[in-house]
Design goal:
homodimer, Alpha/beta knot, Trp Operon Repressor, Chain A, 3 domains, five-stranded parallel beta sheet, 17 helices, 37% helix, flat, tRNA processing (chains A, B), EC 2.1.1.228 (chains A, B), tRNA (guanine-N(1)-)-methyltransferase (chains A, B)
Chain lengths: 425, 425
């Protein structure tokens, strides 16, 4: 692998390249590293490479002329990458793909950035090592070079080592232990001492699953889990922030078709579907709100049929879902009931397809992790302003960039709950 | 800010600390860096810090005795962090939080990892700089130190500079331009030359939105967008991979309550709700499959009522959704129809709450980005084995760790579509 580093601080990499495995790889010829300083291509006496940004603002921007000359002078550029927080996030998969290239050039920006016309002049892929900002691309380039280099054949002493680490299986790595067997009263887990390969592999798989569940459940999105994995994970105690969330389905006051505020009738399947969502996602409860006494009586009969009546014997699963349903005359009554469940009043989060939003999904998720939250959905044409105005936050529409947003409240409740809690929370 | 780096390669940081802004910050006393080598605390003549892992496997593990002695010797450890790919991902928000600490100790692992009992002995937070594997924590520690240091007051020449960058607004940064105004035929965008602050700010906001849309739409999850932002984003041309996806709702062959295979009746609201999901998410189509001729006739009448009949005038939005519905006698007919739409046969992705899955959501998403895909949902108690067996992949259940998985097919279709396409695709 031939790396070319384009940086105004080529000396940044001196110790990186003379330490540990990188030094050995360079010595063994597994990787070769050229360093080029754009300053050497500047034609003015100060070797200027930066200038003030058009449109104003703080900081300096790396200009085109010297950088373009630099890049055109490279004898073996290979694929061009630029380290930038606005780039595609580096992953182990991308590192493996890059390790198959013959040559890579890493352009390290400095200052506020690089004149963007560089992307019109060269085929450069911006790559990010994470959602944080550095003063320049050098530290990020070191991460990229190290992660790619160790996947180049000949870099690692034992090839197997690269396969058993975090991300190789799509999961985080299992914990390691070494001598002494007992340290300050802490023993090595006995499974590791059995000498049974299968038992050790099973123990390590379970620890990987557990660590991933607690720290990076998002990684499961790209992983295939076996039935055995799932059985294990179901039994792992975990925080269930979903319990903090209650859905309220409001039938009035809501917007009617003509734009007026009023009350709409209850739909049997709304109650069933949202109760099933509530139970499947482990919510604290499902609060049905209607100002009409006879509608509440009707809802009570429907729910009673399944909870205690003939429906219970026919479909006990449905009874379990509908046991989460409570009926309220108005939103205040729902808030009081939820407050009593949790010993503190819930935050009120409204939903609206009309916008503008005042709370992101990430912020709502964080709130659910901390305190009870009542997420309010409107029937008819959506919640009345009276409800929106008193909410602690209004979530964005589910499909903000779509010109068509006419989901049923049944589907919207499911999607919203999944957005907030995903497959695990 | 006082950093202590615990590393068996303390010299790794020599040039990092003597380059650019880090060097200036050290010189100005804004940051102080101590480096400690655990080898110096080893008591054997080879200064050993690693040993073979219990349970076997390649590589070496950093042992406890010398590391524990090292950590206990630190005069000013502050908060303890360990760089590890299994850690919590570093973000700009976490960097800002860390920048408020008085002291941080960064433990750099080497080899396969560190004996996990270290976490029982010290309160150490594992931090990751990205989903890739390094040979040790040093390069990652450099990224962390740099991102944190530049948020320490006094590090940056102009404080404003740190606020206008990627992630400060929750979006990726806008592109920069500097002199010359014209370079090899490429002009600076004229908006930046107007001198009107509001116009420049609006241009930059739009470019930030656009870059984020194309490269990191996941960041919108944590962002509040104004109505103006949304109007702009709706008009930005974007790939719409959702068009490649069709949903098939199969009424037979499916599993019945008694475990036998058979056919279930069509539910009017299933057709409506899933059509509305299909239109809202911009799917290629919604294929309703029933082997019963009279059921298809009924479905045709329902759909016709809304598409051309009295329903069209009453609710044109519904007509638009139901225009995506097609009726088929069997899955093969649906596959042929979808194949004709796209000029190539679709991949067949099945769903099952029974498992085991053979395709992750991430893999299905990738497939949808490349070719037509028919995602099949079963009514009744789920798809029959005959359908599962011929599928190119079976997705995991939506709530794999829940003991209760009884969503209505209406809610499941919505959640599944949102999992695959999110708010943007």
């Amino acid at each position: 692998m031939h790396f070319t580093i384009v940086s105004i601080f080529p000396e940044f990499f001196d110790s990186f390249l003379s330490c540990g495995l990188m030094a050995k790889a360079v010595e063994a010829g597994v990787v070769a590293v050229d360093r080029i300083n754009p300053r050497d291509f500047a034609t003015d006496k100060h070797h200027t490479v930066d200038d003030r940004p058009y449109g104003g603002g703080p900081g300096m921007v790396m200009g085109l002329p010297t950088l373009v000359t630099t890049l055109r002078s490279l004898p073996k550029p290979g694929r061009l990458l630029m380290l930038s927080p606005a780039g595609r996030p580096l992953t182990q998969e991308i590192a493996a793909e890059l390790a198959t290239e013959e040559a890579l050039t890493l352009v390290c920006g400095r200052y506020e950035g690089i004149d963007a016309r560089i992307f019109d002049l060269f085929d450069i892929t911006p790559v990010s090592v994470g959602d944080f900002v550095l003063s320049g691309g050098e530290s990020a380039a070191a991460c990229l070079m190290e992660s790619v280099s160790r996947l180049v054949p000949g870099f690692m002493g034992k090839e197997a080592s690269a396969d058993e680490e975090s991300f190789a299986s799509g999961l985080l790595e299992y914990p390691h232990y070494t001598r002494p067997e007992m340290f300050e009263g802490l023993p090595v887990p006995p499974d590791l001492l059995t000498g049974h390969h299968a038992a050790i592999a099973a123990w390590r798989r379970r620890r990987s699953l557990e660590t991933t569940l607690h720290r990076r459940p998002d990684l499961f999105d790209a992983t295939i889990l076996s039935d055995e994995d799932l059985d294990f994970l179901r039994a792992v105690p975990r925080a269930r922030p979903g319990r903090n969330m209650h859905i309220a389905l409001v039938h009035g006051p809501v917007l009617l078709k003509d734009g007026k505020v009023g009350t709409v009738s209850l739909t049997n399947l709304d109650v069933h579907d949202i109760a099933r969502v509530s139970r499947t996602y482990g919510l604290g409860g499902f609060e049905v709100v209607s100002p009409l006494r006879d509608q509440l009586t009707l809802a009570g009969r429907i729910v009673g049929h399944w909870r205690e009546g003939p429906g219970l014997a026919a479909n006990p699963d449905r009874a379990e879902a509908l046991s989460l349903v409570r009926l309220h005359e108005d939103l205040d009554a729902a808030l009081v009931a939820v407050g009593k469940d949790h010993g503190q009043p819930p935050a009120l989060i409204a939903t609206s397809a009309r916008g503008p939003a005042t709370m992101s999904f990430a912020a709502a998720r964080e709130l659910i992790g901390k305190r009870p939250v009542l997420v309010v959905l409107g029937t008819g044409h959506g919640l009345a302003d009276a409800v929106l105005d008193r909410a602690d936050g209004i979530l964005p529409p589910l499909r903000p960039f779509s010109d068509y947003n006419h989901l049923s409240v049944r589907a919207a409740a499911g999607i919203l709950t999944d957005r907030l809690l995903g497959d695990i929370l």
